[in-house]
Every structure is written in C-alpha cells, then in structure tokens.
Amino acid sequence: xxxxxxxxxxxxxxxxxxxxxxxxxxxxxxxxxxxxxxxxxxxxxxxxxxxxxxxxxxxxxxxxxxxxxxxxxxxxxxxxxxxxxxxxxxxxxxxxxxxxxxxxxxxxxxxxxxxxxxxxxxxxxxxxxxxxxxxxxxxxxxxxxxxxxxxxxxxxxxxxxxxxxxxxxxxxxxxxxxxxxxxxxxxxxxxxxxxxxxxxxxxxxxxxxxxxxxxxxxxxxxxxxxxxxxxxxxxxxxxxxxxxxxxxxxxxxxxxxxxxxxxxxxxxxxxxxxxxxxxxxxxxxxxxxxxxxxxxxxxxxxxxxxxxxxxxxxxxxxxxxxxxxxxxxxxxxxxxxxxxxxxxxxxxxxxxxxxxxxxxxxxxxxxxxxxxxxxxxxxxxxxxxxxxxxxxxxxxxxxxxxxxxxxxxxxxxxxxxxxxxxxxxxxxxxxxxxxxxxxxxxxxxxxxxxxxxxxxxxxxxxxxxxxxxxxxxxxxxxxxxxxxxxxxxxxxxxxxxxxxxxxx
Length: 504
What we know:
The protein is mainly beta. About 10% of the residues lie in helices and about 50% in strands.
C-alpha cells in the first residue's frame, strides 16, 4: 500500500508539473538553454526563464537535479525559484557578477551592507517572490570580504532590497560569501526550514517589518548566524520590527561540518567562533516588537542586543533558550554611542527587555553576562526570570579588582571591556533591573563576586542563588540606589536606598 501511494503521489506531482508547464505556470530552465552540468555557464539561460515567467504574469522557474553554474541571477516580481532535490545553483569563480550599484549613503555602514547587485541572486523593488525547494545554493565562487575585491566579484548568495511578500523555504546555502542572505527593507518576509552553513553572516534582516524566522539551522563560525540590523543604507531611518525567531539553531563549527554532520572545530580551534543571534551592530534605525523563542546555541557566542548608532531597541521578549560551550557573554546588552548615522542623531535607548527560561552550560570564564549602558544613557527596564548559567570559573582576586573601561564609542563586543571583575553578571548604567529565580555557578574555583552593579537605579533580586568563594561577596555595589534582595540564598533580605560602595 505504501509503495502504491508513493507511486500515485509521484504521478500526480509529475502530472501537475507537466500540465502546469503547458499552461505556462512552470518554466524549466533547461528549456531555455541551461545544461545543469556544472561546467556550462547557465545564468544567461536562467535569466531568460525568469524573463519569460515575468512576461507571462508570473510563475515558477524550475531547477531539476543538476549543477547550474551561474553569475548574477535577477529575480522579478511574481516569480518563484524552485530548486528541486539534487539541484545546486553554483556560484561561479572569477569576475562575472553584476557590479555594485552606487549608494550615496554607504558612509554610514560597511560596503557589504550598502550594495545588493553584486550577488549570486538579487532582487530590488519586487513583490510576491519566493525561493523554495530542497536543493542547494553553493556560493563557491563568492568572496567573503565586505569590500569590492576585485571588480566583478560577488559577495552575497541572496540579496533583496525594498521588496515585499517574500517566502524562503527548505533550501540550503553553503558558503554564502559575506552574507548568505542580506534582506534590506523587506516587509512580510518568511524564512522557514533553511540550512545555512557559511563562512560569514548567515542571514542579515535589515530594516525589515513583519518577519518570521522558524526552524532554521545556521552555522557561521566567523560571523553572526541570525542577525537583525537597522542601517542607513536606504537613505532613511527604518526600524526592524514585528519579528519572530523560533525553533532555530545557531552554531560556530567549521564551515561545512554542520551539513556533513561532523561538527568539527579544528580550523577555528585557536580562535573564538561567532555564530550567534544578534541585534546590531548597524543600528541607525531601531529594533521593536521582537520575540525569540525555543532556540539553541552550540559552540558559539551568546545572545547580543546592541544599539550604538542612535536606534531605539525596545519591547523584546526572549524565552526558552539553551546554550552550550559559549565562548563569550551568554547575555550581552549594550547601549553605546558609536553613532554611524547622519550628524545630529541622538544616542538611542535600550529598554523593556524580558529574558526568561535560559539554560547555559560551559560559558567562558573571561566574561560575565554584561548589561551596560554609558554615562548619562541608562539601559532601562530589564527583567530576567528563570535563568541558569554554569560558568567555567577560574577568576582571580586580581581580576575582581579591575574597573572595566567605558569605551562609549567603540565597536560593541564583550571583549571591549577586557576581563570582567564579576563572574556572573556585570551591570552598569542601568535603571530598573529585576532578577527572579536566577542561578549562577562555576566549575572551577572563582575568586570574583557573582554580581557587580555600578551606577544602577532600581535593582530587585528575588530567589537568587549565586555560588561564591568564602572570601568573595555575592554582590559588589557601586553608586547604587533602590536596591533590594528577597529570599536570596546566603543573603538576608535587604533594602538599600542609596549606597556609594558596599559588598554583600
């Protein structure tokens, strides 16, 4: 019965594609001259098939099994690329890609974020487009640098600018260049069940609205995995908002070893992999109304929420996250003043952040979780609940005496502060922080306090459990107001209106 059903399903699907092609709905790229042999340059034939579909009012451009060697492929409205099982779109070597278009606003962000045409697949000012199927986009010939090196090279697997109603589902990207996916100004955007194993950023969602990222696995050892941005490349401030990221995995294993399921970290063993979920760094616009849930981090950096160019980062809910083998901060919230935005842009704000149900194992001993604003610009209203972080430990008394520099204008990264004087959380320039049922501990002895609060107003701790050496306090307080603890292990219930310096 099972075999008969499978045969019947195959016949129905084959009939659908055959009849659809007769009706002009499906455009097989081989009918337009593509060979699919991995040697013949097929991008001219692919673009002919796309043009024919667009002239017909829309349709599906179909890639059957084979390897399609290509330079730039030009998407058009009302077009679906269907990359079937066994089909690969292969980015050609050398210098035949479209030139990067002019952009008068590129001084506010890197070259790679400022151009879209120098890509394997690109579209601009389009609507109703999709890339589907269980095939692969292999950017073998793409360069990973963000700059033009040399003229005619491509550095993105897929890039979209000012598009709407876009679906990406089920396909794989291997070696995506500087960006596996760069989407700027894309609204109503769904990315589902993608596998991205790449040598720079996995997916950058920039100045986009109404975005759903689900069931994606992104391995990106040398850059970020799933990254939300809000740059100024469109010549205006545009927020990234109404975004859900759920049921995803990010990691930093050697490129290609997620797809072949060996999960190696040999090539990158001497350096810290990246591979995380991050907001920023580009943040001229803001990040608003965003949820992240049910995600896994493995052998990579931790969660990073950064606004440093004037954007408002607000109303974010993050829950049900597990992390293992984290090479820097498990949680990094940074409000800074790098200000790569038009002159006169004010410093942004970071506020109303809820983080809950985190489990972190084997976090790097050099970094606590860091929540840090800058003098005169506090991070506001952060709530953490049901957090369990197991650090490697090993911190010293000398490290506990360090006063990390402010570095208000620096590129935001946990390493910017150097070694951290507390092992669990470092909280500075914050107004309104609550921790409930938070537990931090370590594997090797650590002489640092669990928590250091500096220039903090309004800090409430309930049911805190913090491992600490006999000679180390749980809390170090510096210029703290309205501080309270309730039912915290090894601490009496405490209320402090204002204190310049105190250990608890």
